[in-house]
Every structure is written in structure tokens, then in C-alpha cells.
Amino acid sequence: MASAQSVTHYQILKLDPLLIDDQQDPTALIKKAYHRALLQNHPDKAAASQEAIFSVDQITQAYNVVSSPAQRASYDASLRLEPQANSGFATKFQTGVENVDLDDLAFDEAEDCWYRSCRCGNDRGYRFREDDLMEAEEEGELMVGCLDCSLWLRVHYAVLETDDCESPTNQKQN
């Protein structure tokens, strides 16, 4: 998901991913970085000597991805898998990624979420909802980080549209 120029969303917003991880609620920090990037890259206000001027679309795309926990997790995972695109980010995170099908995960009807235990010991380390699946619908896979450690789970699935008014049915990909 890194751009062809190998500029990350974090570089566009001038944010350190570790700083975001340290925040209990990074919403305000991300929003402030978004507004700062818009101002710094405005054609009428940007310094003439500035090397790269990012478009409003690039800044907005970066903000949308970084501000959504599910999209950010997927984006971070893609950066880890492309060390040549951003070697600084890739060396900070050396984690394992396990591939599973959605049908192999347990579903908790009371909490309306899928879950799986992690090898770190958390019985529900990997947890996500249908909304998370819908956000990553185009990719057909969702990256889910463990709540207690640095391990990741790549959940493969497909969304099938139904003819009636029922919600989409999630099934594993063939």
C-alpha cells in the first residue's frame, strides 16, 4: 500500500508510528497532523524551497488510513512486508504474521465479534467485528494485531452480496 514514490502516509503527515502507538487515544494527534500537513502543503502558503508538496488528496488519503484502526493495522502490515520501501519502519517491527480463513475463527454472538487466541497467552488476543471486515472488503483480507503482543493475523475472506435485504455473508475464499 506504500505509494510508488515510497513515501508513507506517516511521512506525509509527519507522524512517527511509534508516537501514535504510545497514545491511549491518538485521534487528536492525528487530526492535528492532518491540519498541519494541509497548511504546510497549501500552494499559497508552502515555502518555495519545500522539496515535496503533497496534494490535498494525498494528505486526505493518509489521514483516512492512519485515523482508522483497521486500515492503519493493514497499512502497517503492508509496510512491514515491504522493507525496501521504508527500511526505517520495517526494522522497528519484526513480527510474525499467521494466515487463517475467516471460517476457522470462533464467533462470539454476545459480543458480535470473531476472535482467536494468540500464542502470547491471551485467549482473545485477536478480535474484530464485521465493520472491520467491511472496511477491508476490497482486499479480501484483514490484518489484525494481537491486543497484548506484536504478532499479527491475516484473515482471508470474501464478501458475497445477497439478493434479499439480508446483510452480506462472509465466507472463506476458495
| Helix/sheet category | alpha+beta
Name of the CATH first level of the largest domain: Mainly Alpha
Report mean pLDDT, rounded to a whole number.
78
**Fraction of residues in H or I helices:** 25-40%
How far apart the termini lie comes to: 24 Å
Care to count the β-strands? 8
Strand count, sense and barrel status of the largest sheet are:
3 strands, mixed
Q: Per CATH, which architecture of the largest domain?
A: Orthogonal Bundle
Trace the largest sheet across and list its strands: 1-6-5
Unreliable sequence segments: 84-95, 166-174
β-strand percent reads 15-25%
CATH topology of the largest domain: Helix Hairpins
Radius of gyration: 18 Å
Pfam families: DnaJ, Zn_ribbon_CSL
Keywords: Cytoplasm, Iron, Metal-binding, Nucleus, Zinc
Protein name: Diphthamide biosynthesis protein 4
Function: Required for the first step of diphthamide biosynthesis, the transfer of 3-amino-3-carboxypropyl from S-adenosyl-L-methionine to a histidine residue. Diphthamide is a post-translational modification of histidine which occurs in elongation factor 2.
Give an overview of the whole structure.
The chain has helices spanning 9-13, 17-22, 27-40, 56-67, 69-81, 87-92, 130-135, and strands at 97-101, 106-108, 113-116, 126-128, 141-145, 152-156, 158-160, 169-171. With 174 residues, the protein is an alpha+beta fold. The protein has 7 helices and 8 strands. Mean pLDDT is 78; it is low at 84-95 and 166-174. A 3-stranded mixed beta sheet has the order 1-6-5. Strands 2-3-4 form a 3-stranded antiparallel beta sheet. Strands 7-8 form a two-stranded antiparallel sheet. The protein starts with 8 loop residues before the first helix and ends with a strand. The protein has 2 domains: 9-92, Helix Hairpins (Orthogonal Bundle), CATH 1.10.287; 97-171, Roll (Microbial ribonuclease fold), CATH 3.10.660.
